[in-house]
Amino acid sequence: MYYIKIFLYSKIEIMINDMTKGAPLKLIILFSVPLLIGNIFQQLYNIADIVIVGRTLGMNALAAVGAISPIFFFLMFIVVGMTNGFAVITGQRFGAKDPDGVRKSVTVSTVLSMAFTIVFSVLLAVFMPTILGWMNVPEVIFHDAYWYIQIVIGGLFIANAYNLLASIVRALGDSKTPLYFLIFASVLNIFLALLFILKFGWGVPGSAIAVVLSQAISALLCVVYVKKRFPILHLKKEDWIFAFKKDCIPFAYEHLRVGIPMALQFSILGISILIIQSVANSFGPDVIAALTAALRIEQIATLPMVSFGVAIAAYTAQNFGANNFSRIKYGVNRSSLINLSLSVVMTFLMHYFGSDIVGLFIGKNQHHIIEIARKYLLISTMFYFFLGQIFIFRNALQGMGEATLPLLASIGELVMRSFAAIYLAAKFSYIGVFYSGPIAWIAASTIMAAGYYLNLFKIVKKAHANVRQQRRLQAELAA
């Protein structure tokens, strides 16, 4: 059986990237590039909403999509946080050269995430009118906002399936597999959005339907490809049986111990954005539309940071499983230097070209809205370095299986962002809201950095103690 596992692993390594060997920075960069490309195309889902809805249906329709965008991101944050958390265990099993553990981790992750999605979707669908009321969504855009988000909730199961597959594959070191399907689905989303809005006249809900159908295609293509190309992910009957047996409880708890705090952590971030959006909604459709466009631009500008963060999670998880702690430290330090360079470049681009980019989204003649969006970008870009460090330290901690510290940092971010949004908005109008993000980034990155270095110190100290103990035992046996 041992030799069968070794043979299986030798075949797997043809398709999957082992990040426990080779130059750390090179591995992280090569891993993150496909992720960056994929993230860019994934953002086309949201960009298509802004460009197509804003230019074909008007500013009120754009405001409707923007008003409920935080709910959309809240849902995606929870899905991504939970699936990435489960995938940490998968990556650790892979780093420990345990293919049976990898397959069992996949089945447990699938059962847990899908059960959660069903319950969560039903609750959200029932209470959505109340949630929109809490968010101060203006009456003039309420109808479109309601149906857009209800359609997205209906497709949450599909989004979960895709993100779970993508997270598992990335945890094994392959960031390319979902990329091509994502590119295809992104282009398909644009085509379907234009078809549903211009040809069928479905309005804002048509854009949501296009998003869900495109995600379904990417998930389906991912399933087919994984089935044909990844032997380690070919699940057996006993793997599924294990997921429903009592013996699985400790293993399921291991997944939940990382997955739930990560989901909570991401949901806290989503809640903070919901609070900001509810405050911004009180300033009317123009501010909503401007903030919507500016946030989409910011999401594109910070994609390199996000991609590096995901690469760090996979890199750290594998090296943690292999007990290569010095490689973890080296990779994180070098990634931080790259983040500093990226932050400077993004700040320069947003300062000098932000207004032109906003005009591409909503039209050159929307001068008032463009000016509001430009002010947001001028404020936020000065603090991109702190945002990038959040991605790096948070993913490094999660790759090592530490979920408590990132959760505490997220709570700190929620408190700081909410306080800043409410208090500063009362003092300085919507400009005060724009400062809430940078204030939260500084607080969260500080907590995350302290947690990362403390956690790494404890892990290394424990590993050295184990080595000394083993040497003493060997010496005693030799004597």
Helix and strand layout, with pairings?
Blueprint: H1 2-15, H2 24-56, H3 59-67, H4 69-95, H5 99-134, H6 139-154, H7 156-171, H8 177-199, H9 203-229, H10 237-243, H11 249-281, H12 285-301, H13 303-321, H14 325-362, H15 367-380, H16 384-399, H17 404-428, H18 430-434, H19 436-478
Key features of this structure:
single chain, 479 residues, mainly alpha, disordered N terminus
What's the gist of this structure?
The chain contains 19 helices and no strands. With 479 residues, it is mainly alpha-helical. The radius of gyration is 23 Å and the shape is globular.
Describe the structure.
The protein has 479 residues and is mainly α. The protein has one domain (2-478). 87% of the residues lie in helices and 0% in strands. The two termini are 35 Å apart.
Q: What is the total number of structural domains?
A: 1
Calculate the terminal CA-CA distance, rounded to whole Å: 35 Å
Question: Taking Cα atoms only, what radius of gyration do you get, to the nearest Å?
Answer: 23 Å
- Mean of residue pLDDT values: 78
